[in-house]
Amino acid sequence: MAKTFTWAGRTSSGALRNGETAAGSRDELVSTLRKQGITPTSILEKKAGLKLFAPRKKRVTDKDLVVFTRQFATMFNAGIPIVQGLDILSKQSENKSLGEIIVQIKSNVETGSNLADALKKHKNIFDDLYVNLVAAGEAGGVLDEVLMRLAGYIEKAMKLKKKVKGAMIYPMIVIAVAVLVIAIIMIFVIPVFAKVFGDMGATLPGPTRSVIWLSNFFSGIGGVVIFAGVVSSAFGIKRFRKTERGRMKTDQFLLNVPVIGNLIKKVAVARFSRTLGTLMNSGVPILDGLEICAKSSGNKVVEQIVMGVKTEVASGKTVAEPLSKSPVFPPMVCQMINVGESTGALDQMLVKIADFYDDEVDSAVANLTTLLEPMLMVFLGVTIGYIVIALYLPIFHMGDVIGK
Asked: What is the mean pLDDT of residues 350-355?
């Protein structure tokens, strides 16, 4: 993690200089200053003061990363040196957190690091895919083209993620509203009716008794037990998913869930195809590309499959052959990859597969929403309808009760 140092020193001509610079260590700062022709006379680490209400650092989003990558590619293509381009981008970045990171990257490049190594120090922002593509671009002298390709990849990945999230938001909102409405009726409304019916001494029908029993259950210890059970289950699943076995088991379960599992498989195929296609198109070796695809898959089952493919490819087999044995990748995808390998245009074929499966994800998301909407409406209607009928049944016999 970079620290901030205040320093003073002299140039070779004897002129005094001072400033404030971020560096990984004191030795790194000394090396940076000497390369700039400055001999440091004093270096003090700036201690961060205790701030009770310190502003929270803004998270670097995919959108911020796309803007930075595109602008950097444009500047590099226009002939602006890397260090100068980074300096301009650090000052004009709307996200201050990203601006600070760019300053650190610029400092590392100034001390002799190449751009890929400088980016590698910030893995929480620049993943293996980003770093490897930049390294390939630097090695091949086509950094501007690689950066533009990388910006396009991030945009498409961002849209894919947004589609999947959008498919889940609507049903989650409907479920949350349904649970809230039912809870209010059970806890606050039904007890009022139960008191009225009890005061009248009426013999209540079965549906009414069942609703009142449920109301008493949820209003009392039963509601507390259920709430505690839900919270503890969520916490337990979260802890379980942090383990290697837990991730594998839960990811395998999600792949087998009807409808949702199909959507996850299509997203996995689209992400694998676009990632590997972009890496190969930028000159990254196939084995390195497969390893990056595995790590960035977001699903342990898919990661295991792709790492198995890498092992098979390393032993001399094609990509399509081991991939065809997996339950995640459809036969059509494997056949298209086989054709791409046979014709020597695997990178182009992978991009075509990714574009096709992006459309498939669109259709799957639309189908999921179409399927869930009536199911949720039916559930809500039946539940609320049952409660209303159960509460009105005794009222229908109220005249007999009053006559007696």
From this structure: 89
Mean pLDDT of the chain: 82
Cα–Cα dist 142/136, whole Å: 8
What are the CB-based long-range contacts (under 8 Å, 24+) for 120-129? 121/24, 125/60, 125/65, 125/98, 125/101, 127/296, 128/292, 128/295, 128/296, 129/153, 129/275, 129/278, 129/279, 129/292, 129/296
Q: What are phi and psi of 291, to 5 degrees?
A: -65, -40
- Cβ density class 145-176: b for 16+ within 10 Å, e for less: bbbbbbbebbbbbeebeebbeebeeebeebee
Residues 173-205: tens digit of each pLDDT: 878 888 888 888 888 888 887 787 777 666 777
pLDDT above 50 (res 92): yes
386 CB neighbour count, 10 Å cutoff: 13
Output the CA–CA distances (angstroms, integers) from residue 17 to 111, 193, 284, in the order listed: 19, 82, 44
- State residue 285 phi and psi, 5-degree precision: -55, 150
Which tokens go with 289? Answer: 């590309």
Put simply, whether the predicted model's pTM sits higher than 0.90 gets the answer no
Contact call for residues 148 and 66 (beta carbons, < 8 A): no
- Encoded tokens for 31: 């090396």
**Which tokens is 305 given?**
């499959």
Cα separations in angstroms, 207 against 203, 254, 322 = 12, 37, 58
Q: What is the dihedral of CA 8, 9, 10, 15, to 10 degrees?
A: -10
pLDDT range class, residue 59, cuts 50, 70, 90: confident
Query: The dihedral of CA 162, 165, 171, 177: what is its sign?
Result: negative
SS3 222: helix
